[in-house]
Amino acid sequence: MIIKEYRVVLPLTVEEYQVGQLWSVAEASKQETGGGEGVEVLKNEPFTGVPLLNGQYSTGQYTHKIYHLQSKVPGIVKKIAPKGSLAIHEEAWNAYPYCKTVLTNPDYMKDNFYVKVETIHLPDRGTTENAHNLPNDILSKREVVQIDIANDNEFLSPSDVKPETSPSLFMSQKTGRGKLSGNWRSTTEPVMCAYKLVTVHFKWFGLQNLVEKFAHNQYPRLFSKFHREVFCWIDNWIELTMADIRAIEEKARRELDEARKTGQVRGMTAN
Predict the structure, then answer these.
(1) Diameter of the chain by CA atoms?
(2) Where along the chain do its domains lie?
(3) Which PANTHER family match (predicted)?
(4) Which residues pair with 76 in a beta bridge?
(5) Calpha distance 244→237 (Å, rounded)
(6) Beta-bridge mates of residue 98
């Protein structure tokens, strides 16, 4: 089992990010859906009574999605996995500013596979040492990875880097934020950090290390690409309310259902 904490500093307030993240998830899902693959939304509804982060949070929004995968996993896994088994279930409990997301493969891997992503959003520059209140035994195993969304070359593939979603080139017309350069994480205002604790468990003899390392190779790329888009799309979402977001999510759900049935495979593929 590999545990890493990815810290993503952003030139946003914690309150702004709540709207920006949800708008961007809906938008990014469209980019990853087509040709029989992509995102299927099963549930998107309020929840109560689920204790999160040692009971600090218990109410929020619950989502259950299925990711239909084929081109987004390592070739060796595709060769040995039965047809139809590459469907990943995602359950998320969003009790913002805390969110817990669990990925599983109940139809095939059952309890032998899960990825848990726990995120706390704080108004700082990524300097909180133990944002998730981890016990010492887990804290000693955790590796911290800093992600600079203005760095085009650190974790991204060449196909991920586009002028319109490069924070080093982008300047918001509505907020005046950007272009991000140099030591911007130490000086920008407003500022916040998403602390993403990722635990990967894959129990399959001969493949455990390969798959767990593959997942952790993909997450910094995914987090970097997504958060670059959140910031560079700011003029699309900065004036929206949470009521606007829920309407957009419902519209996106219908569009995703249609897009999965038609067109070509889109979005990120496995490196």
Answers:
(1) 53
(2) 2-37+96-258
(3) PHOSPHATIDYLINOSITOL TRANSFER PROTEIN, VIBRATOR, ISOFORM B
(4) none
(5) 10
(6) 95, 120
At 191-226, the pLDDT tens digits run: 999 999 999 888 877 777 777 888 888 899 999 999
Does the global pTM surpass 0.70? yes
CA distances from 41 to 24, 29, 38, 174 (A): 15, 10, 10, 32
Is 128 a residue whose pLDDT tops 70? Answer: yes
CATH class label, 2-37+96-258: alpha beta
What 3-state class would DSSP assign to 252?
helix
Cα 44 to Cα 217: distance, rounded to the nearest angstrom = 29
Tell me which of 35 and 69 has the higher pLDDT: 69
Q: Which residue has the tokens 């987004």?
A: 72
Going by the DSSP 8-state scheme, the letter that residue 82 receives in this structure is P
**Where do runs of H (alpha helix) occur along 93-146?**
136-139
Distance from the Cα of residue 211 to its chain's centroid: 18
How much is the pLDDT for 113? 86
3-state secondary structure of 108: coil
When the pLDDT of each residue in the chain is averaged and rounded to a whole number, the result is: 87
Rounded Cα distance between 8 and 225, Å, is 11
Whether residue 51 contacts residue 29, with contact meaning beta carbons closer than 8 Å, is answered with no
Say which residues have a Cβ less than 8 Å from residue 139's Cβ, sequence separation at least 6.
Answer: 130
Give tens-digit pLDDT for 133-160: 999 999 999 999 999 999 999 999 999 9
Which of 169, 145, 163 is closest to 222 using CA atoms?
Answer: 145
Residue with the bigger pLDDT between 2 and 245: it is 245
